[in-house]
Design a protein that fits this description.
Shape: flat
Largest sheet: 6 strands, antiparallel
Number of helices: 1
Helix content: 10-25%
Order of helices and strands: EEEEEEH
């Protein structure tokens, strides 16, 4: 478990292979509840290579000194990311 927002990661290793490779992250909010956006790739065992970039937004709650994931939303493609950006820009302008 992570005790600070900076320690949060989605990197995951299985049988000596990094099956989820974290490429980048941005912390949107800190505190008792933290929101983090991750950019990552997943290992494709059949092709023995990493797949395309993916994005996920995760919410964590701090409890007992550690952050625990409470919810997540995965942005499935660059096209979906662009549409989300477009909608949000329209709402805040």
């Amino acid at each position: 478990m992570a005790g600070s927002v900076e320690e949060l990661t989605i990197a995951y290793e299985e049988d000596g292979v990094e099956v989820v490779k974290e490429l980048d992250k941005a912390v949107l909010t800190k505190g008792a509840w933290a929101t983090v956006v991750f950019r990552y790739q997943e290992w494709d065992r059949a092709k023995e290579t990493y797949g395309p970039d993916k994005y996920t937004i995760r919410r964590y709650q701090k409890s007992g000194g550690d952050y625990r994931q409470k919810s997540k939303f995965t942005i499935s493609s660059p096209d979906q990311a662009r549409k989300l950006i477009e909608v949000l820009q329209g709402w805040i302008e």
